[in-house]
Amino acid sequence: MATPETVRSDPRYRELPISEQDRVEFLNSRGEKDPRCPICKDKLLVYITPTLAHPCECKANRDNERAIASSGLTADLKLKTFSTFQTRHQWQLGLKQAAISFCEDNGKWFFAGGQVGCGKTHICTAIINELMGKGRRAKYMVWPTEVDSIKGNAEDSGRAIDRLMNVPVLYIDDFLKTSKERKVDRNGALYVDIKAPTPGELNAAFRLICHRYNSGATTIISSEFTVENIMAYDLGLGSRIHEKTKGYQLIIGPDDSKNMRIAE
Description:
By secondary structure, the chain is an alpha/beta fold. It contains twelve helices and nine strands.
């Protein structure tokens, strides 16, 4: 990434005639009146020569901001941080410690599964916060609302899944979540009927996960399912997630007392 100091020390700049160096200085001085970035004046690029520019160091964060804004996660990034994650119980502390450790461990994936409302989305969002702070570009995907856009072989679905395949850091929230229906059994007891993912949804999941598995791109997953549940649906899909999340596969067992949305 370019800064005024790196520009002036660049051989391509130093070899320019004084008049063209002045032109570079002029181009780099142009921009917004009250810029967020004093380096590029919010142009997102810094000129090396009058016809050659490099991305400013602020560009990665701006790209992240746009990606997060388009996902609707902007407000959560301010609220769901490591510092705001409660650790009143040992299982919460373990979840937080694993997430912090993950942020320093390149090449691994992170999986938080199990109990509804236990803070899976919070801790995964905190990871995104941390990685974005290090300049890494991230994308947030809500599986139930976006899976339809990546199913099938249509041109639009191909473009949609390509964006998810190739982003450096991808967070998939509510992975494989499907519709639930409350039913009453023959004895009058209420139970929740969870529908299995459709073949189309599993195929889309496999294409996405397999590509990221092969490329080594960082992937963060939260789900109401465990990895074992996912392997039962599709062994190839689940086993890839299992391998990549070794050491960072956190499963919170079913226990409504761990649902922080309703806990007192």
